Amino acid sequence: MSSRSLNKVLLIGNLTVDPELRYTPQGTAVATFSVATNRNWTDQSGQPQEAVEFTRCVAWAKLAEVCSQILKKGKKVYVEGRLQTREWEAQDKTKRRTTEVIIESMIALSPAGAPASAGAVVAPVPSAPKQSKKKEIKPEAEEESVAAEDIPF
How far is CA 20 from its chain centroid? Predict the structure, then answer.
Protein backbone atom coordinates (compact mmCIF):
# COMPACT_ATOMS: atom_id res chain seq x y z
CA MET A 1 0.00 0.00 0.00
CA SER A 2 1.46 3.34 -1.00
CA SER A 3 0.81 6.52 0.89
CA ARG A 4 0.39 9.81 -0.88
CA SER A 5 2.15 12.98 0.09
CA LEU A 6 2.58 16.50 -1.24
CA ASN A 7 5.55 18.83 -1.02
CA LYS A 8 4.43 22.11 -2.61
CA VAL A 9 5.31 25.71 -1.73
CA LEU A 10 3.72 28.85 -3.19
CA LEU A 11 5.17 32.23 -2.24
CA ILE A 12 4.43 35.80 -3.25
CA GLY A 13 6.86 38.26 -1.78
CA ASN A 14 9.73 40.66 -2.40
CA LEU A 15 13.33 39.76 -3.14
CA THR A 16 15.69 40.77 -0.34
CA VAL A 17 18.80 40.56 -2.55
CA ASP A 18 19.65 40.28 -6.23
CA PRO A 19 19.86 36.62 -7.27
CA GLU A 20 23.37 35.16 -7.08
CA LEU A 21 24.15 33.09 -10.18
CA ARG A 22 26.85 30.41 -9.98
CA TYR A 23 27.70 27.29 -11.96
CA THR A 24 28.42 23.77 -10.75
CA PRO A 25 31.66 22.08 -11.90
CA GLN A 26 29.51 20.28 -14.51
CA GLY A 27 28.34 23.65 -15.89
CA THR A 28 24.78 23.67 -14.49
CA ALA A 29 23.52 27.12 -13.52
CA VAL A 30 22.20 27.66 -9.97
CA ALA A 31 20.68 30.90 -8.67
CA THR A 32 19.99 31.63 -5.00
CA PHE A 33 18.02 34.47 -3.45
CA SER A 34 15.73 35.20 -0.53
CA VAL A 35 12.05 36.16 -0.63
CA ALA A 36 10.42 38.14 2.19
CA THR A 37 6.75 37.49 2.95
CA ASN A 38 4.66 39.48 5.44
CA ARG A 39 1.95 38.36 7.83
CA ASN A 40 -0.39 40.85 9.53
CA TRP A 41 -2.76 40.19 12.41
CA THR A 42 -4.34 41.84 15.42
CA ASP A 43 -3.30 40.59 18.85
CA GLN A 44 -5.63 39.99 21.83
CA SER A 45 -5.29 43.60 22.98
CA GLY A 46 -6.39 44.89 19.55
CA GLN A 47 -2.93 46.07 18.49
CA PRO A 48 -1.92 45.45 14.87
CA GLN A 49 1.08 43.14 14.52
CA GLU A 50 3.33 42.23 11.60
CA ALA A 51 5.90 39.50 11.08
CA VAL A 52 8.26 38.96 8.18
CA GLU A 53 9.45 35.54 7.04
CA PHE A 54 12.60 35.22 4.93
CA THR A 55 12.72 32.15 2.68
CA ARG A 56 15.81 30.98 0.80
CA CYS A 57 15.02 30.00 -2.80
CA VAL A 58 17.13 28.03 -5.28
CA ALA A 59 16.60 27.78 -9.04
CA TRP A 60 18.49 25.42 -11.35
CA ALA A 61 19.48 25.30 -15.04
CA LYS A 62 17.69 27.66 -17.47
CA LEU A 63 15.30 28.91 -14.75
CA ALA A 64 18.36 30.00 -12.71
CA GLU A 65 19.66 32.06 -15.63
CA VAL A 66 16.22 33.65 -16.20
CA CYS A 67 15.91 34.51 -12.49
CA SER A 68 19.33 36.18 -12.48
CA GLN A 69 18.43 38.24 -15.55
CA ILE A 70 14.99 39.58 -14.60
CA LEU A 71 14.74 39.51 -10.79
CA LYS A 72 16.17 42.36 -8.73
CA LYS A 73 16.22 43.26 -5.04
CA GLY A 74 12.88 44.70 -3.88
CA LYS A 75 10.86 43.35 -6.83
CA LYS A 76 7.72 41.30 -6.22
CA VAL A 77 7.86 37.68 -7.34
CA TYR A 78 5.74 34.52 -7.34
CA VAL A 79 7.66 31.29 -6.85
CA GLU A 80 6.37 27.74 -6.84
CA GLY A 81 8.41 24.74 -5.82
CA ARG A 82 9.16 22.18 -3.14
CA LEU A 83 10.86 22.23 0.26
CA GLN A 84 14.25 20.60 0.61
CA THR A 85 16.46 20.30 3.67
CA ARG A 86 20.23 19.96 3.31
CA GLU A 87 22.88 19.11 5.89
CA TRP A 88 26.64 19.69 5.67
CA GLU A 89 29.71 20.07 7.83
CA ALA A 90 31.14 23.59 8.03
CA GLN A 91 34.86 24.37 7.98
CA ASP A 92 34.84 24.64 11.78
CA LYS A 93 33.50 21.02 11.90
CA THR A 94 30.04 22.05 13.10
CA LYS A 95 27.03 20.46 11.47
CA ARG A 96 24.83 22.87 9.55
CA ARG A 97 21.30 22.46 8.24
CA THR A 98 19.08 24.60 6.02
CA THR A 99 15.64 24.31 4.48
CA GLU A 100 15.04 26.00 1.14
CA VAL A 101 12.51 26.15 -1.68
CA ILE A 102 13.68 24.46 -4.87
CA ILE A 103 11.88 26.54 -7.50
CA GLU A 104 10.00 24.79 -10.29
CA SER A 105 8.34 27.93 -11.70
CA MET A 106 8.61 31.68 -11.22
CA ILE A 107 6.64 34.73 -12.30
CA ALA A 108 8.09 38.23 -11.95
CA LEU A 109 5.20 40.35 -10.67
CA SER A 110 6.95 43.71 -10.85
CA PRO A 111 7.38 45.00 -14.39
CA ALA A 112 10.91 45.52 -15.69
CA GLY A 113 12.24 49.02 -15.01
CA ALA A 114 9.48 49.77 -12.48
CA PRO A 115 10.24 50.82 -8.90
CA ALA A 116 10.38 48.01 -6.36
CA SER A 117 6.97 48.92 -4.92
CA ALA A 118 5.14 48.65 -8.25
CA GLY A 119 2.79 45.71 -8.76
CA ALA A 120 2.19 43.62 -11.81
CA VAL A 121 0.90 45.35 -14.89
CA VAL A 122 -1.43 43.47 -17.18
CA ALA A 123 -1.34 44.80 -20.71
CA PRO A 124 -4.58 44.74 -22.66
CA VAL A 125 -4.77 42.03 -25.27
CA PRO A 126 -5.13 43.51 -28.75
CA SER A 127 -8.35 42.51 -30.46
CA ALA A 128 -8.30 40.58 -33.68
CA PRO A 129 -8.88 42.58 -36.86
CA LYS A 130 -12.55 42.77 -37.75
CA GLN A 131 -13.62 40.81 -40.76
CA SER A 132 -16.24 42.13 -43.11
CA LYS A 133 -18.04 38.81 -43.49
CA LYS A 134 -18.83 36.68 -40.47
CA LYS A 135 -19.99 33.15 -40.51
CA GLU A 136 -22.15 32.67 -37.44
CA ILE A 137 -22.64 29.18 -36.10
CA LYS A 138 -25.55 28.70 -33.71
CA PRO A 139 -25.69 25.61 -31.54
CA GLU A 140 -29.11 23.97 -31.48
CA ALA A 141 -29.63 24.16 -27.72
CA GLU A 142 -28.21 27.65 -27.20
CA GLU A 143 -30.67 30.52 -26.88
CA GLU A 144 -28.16 33.38 -26.90
CA SER A 145 -25.37 33.90 -29.42
CA VAL A 146 -21.99 35.35 -28.41
CA ALA A 147 -19.91 37.16 -31.03
CA ALA A 148 -16.11 36.67 -31.11
CA GLU A 149 -15.45 40.35 -30.27
CA ASP A 150 -17.55 40.01 -27.08
CA ILE A 151 -15.08 37.50 -25.60
CA PRO A 152 -12.63 39.41 -23.32
CA PHE A 153 -9.53 37.36 -24.23
Answer: 17
What single-letter amino acid sits at 151? I
How many CB atoms are located within 10 Å of the residue 81 CB? 21
Q: How many CA atoms lie within 13 A of 109 on its CB side?
A: 17
- The set of residues, in sequence order, having a beta carbon less than 8 Å from that of 87 and lying 6+ positions away, is 95, 96, 97
Q: What is the pLDDT of residue 149?
A: 55
Which SS3 state, helix, strand or coil, does residue 75 take? Answer: coil
Q: What is the pLDDT of residues 80-129, one digit of tens each?
A: 999 999 998 889 999 999 999 999 999 999 876 665 554 443 333 334 44
Question: Are 22 and 30 contacting, i.e. CB atoms less than 8 angstroms apart?
Answer: yes
Report whether 34 contacts 52 (CB < 8 A): no
Domains in the chain (CATH in brackets) are: 9-113 (2.40.50.140)
User: What pLDDT, on a 0 to 100 scale, did the predictor assign at position 110?
Assistant: 83
The terminus-to-terminus CA distance of the chain in angstroms comes to 46
For the chain, the C-alpha Rg in angstroms (whole number) is 23
Query: Which contiguous run of DSSP H or E holds residue 62?
Result: helix 61-70
